[in-house]
Every structure is written in C-alpha cells, then in structure tokens.
Amino acid sequence: MRLYLTFAAISFLAAQSAAAQAVPVQAAPPIDTLYFVVRDGIVMSTQGHTMVIDYNADGTFTGDVSGTAFQGTYRLDGARLCATSSLAASETCTTYPEGMASDDTFDVTSPALGGVRIHIRTPEENRAAAAAAEAGN
Questions:
Q1: pLDDT one-digit tens code per residue, 87-98
Q2: Is residue 62 part of a domain?
C-alpha cells in the first residue's frame, strides 16, 4: 500500500510539473508609453528617413516612408513593442522608456535600425493630418 501511495504522489507531482511547463508564457502588461504610441501613432526618424506609423487595436499597423506604404503586425510585451512588417519579415522588438505621452520625443535603439528618434503624435496632429488627407481627395 505504501509503495502505491508513493507512486501516486510521484505521478501527481510529475503531472503538475508537465502541466506547468505546457502553460504559455504571458506577455507583461504594456507600459504607459506604449498606450500613447498605439493610441496616437508615431513619427519615427532614422538614417535620414521619416516614417509615419499608425497602430490599430487589432495588432496591425500601417505606415509610410518616403511615399511608400507598408503594413505589419505588432504585439506589446511590457516595455517592448515587437513588430513584423512588409519591410522586414523577421520580428524585431524595441524597448521604449516609461513615462512618455503624446507630443513627447525621445530616442530608442532598434535592433534592426540602430538609433531611432520617436515622436508620439498628438490628437491635434492626427486631426490635422486627417483633414489634409480629406482635402487632398
């Protein structure tokens, strides 16, 4: 009887260990800076180019660099924004600083692009851009 209980206890612990290993790792909640990045979009400057990027709540984004449109997907993991796009198929993750909001400009280091200047657009900038696009149509 004692051998059976020992075997049952070992089997139970092994099953719990296997179940714990099968649980996918959850992403950390995004920091406040990324809330504003996704809500308002960004203007990214690097290597003499300027990109305007708009993020959607469904994990997709669209952008424009020198008149060339691109799109992709993103995910948030704590202070990191990880993205794949039609410009770069492999995922890259960039760490953003905490405490930034609309109209802030700051530098980050992208694994793919090196030093990057980020400007989080304001709701006013977005309205002006939408009005200009509407007037152009």
A1: 888 999 999 999
A2: yes
CATH of the domain at 68: 2.40.128
Look-up: residue for tokens 């979009």? 41
CA–CA distance from 110 to each of 18, 46, 90 (Å)?
36, 10, 13
In a domain, 6, yes or no: no
Number of structural domains found in the chain: 1
Domain of residue 47 covers: 32-136
Whether 70 is covered by a domain: the verdict is yes
8 Å CB contact between 101 and 32: yes
Let me know if residue 66 belongs to a domain.
Answer: yes
Burial readout 57-96 (b: 16 or more C-beta within 10 A, e: otherwise): eeeebbbeeeeeeeebebebbebbbebebeeeeeeebbeb
Residue 10 DSSP label: H
The torsion angles phi and psi of 7, rounded to 5 degrees, stand at -60, -45
Helix (H, G, I), strand (E, B) or coil at 54: strand
Model confidence, pTM: 0.76
Residue 110 class from Cβ within 10 Å (0-12 exposed, 13-18 middle, 19+ buried)? middle
